[in-house]
Amino acid sequence: MRIDSVDATQLGDLREPLHELYRQCFADPPWNEPQEMLDDYVNVLAKHLERPGLSGSVAVGDAGLLGVVYGWPMPPELPDDTLHRAVARVVPTERLVAPAVAVVELMVNPVSRGRGVGRALLDHFVCARDAWLVTHPDALACRLYKSAGWRPSAQFRNQYGDRRVAYVLSSGAT
Ligand SMILES: CC(C)(COP(=O)(O)OP(=O)(O)OC[C@H]1O[C@@H](n2cnc3c(N)ncnc32)[C@H](O)[C@@H]1OP(=O)(O)O)[C@@H](O)C(=O)NCCC(=O)NCCS
């Protein structure tokens, strides 16, 4: 396996395998995303690809794409939208803005899980920066974040009423 850094153009070139990976990652518990939401990832990804500074890391093996993580650098001011307002109720705003990076998606192909791919992707992408992300409190990913030194917030509800938790990683530089 190798891990490569990718920019928005390179992630865009992976649109179809990324969508397949998304279906494999978010149809099952605790996510249970309905078909229409799984299908809509193509549009969500298109919006993600427009975000300034988007970058990611991809894990590639003999069989192709094993996993991906991507996100973007946060601006100095917190965006005034429902998600960021909800996260700011459980995480101090100064941890959410620049120089922090937001981790937006982390996905590993089910057949490649449990072999350190997720941990390696996260390390490669975050690369000792301040970072934060939002996940489901029952996701297996929480064990990865905790064992990698990320701190969980109080739980909160997103705009759809789903339970969520933020995880914050402090590099120690700020
Ligand atoms: C979360 C996810 C990325 C983990 O990928 P992975 O490659 O299996 O993770 P790793 O093998 O690197 O495991 C890292 C740590 O996570 C924890 N972990 C991961 N899978 C686990 C499992 N099935 N059971 C228990 N712990 C698990 C362990 O603490 C593990 O540390 P260890 O290797 O020291 O035991 C993967 O399960 C996934 O894609 N899930 C669906 C999508 C998702 O929930 N993404 C996160 C959204 S925020």
TrEMBL record:
The keyword Zinc does not apply. Gene3D superfamilies: 3.40.630.30. GO terms for molecular function: acyltransferase activity, transferring groups other than amino-acyl groups. It comes from the Bacteria. Pfam families: Acetyltransf_1. The keyword 4Fe-4S does not apply. This is Acetyltransferase (GNAT) family protein. It comes from Kibdelosporangium aridum.
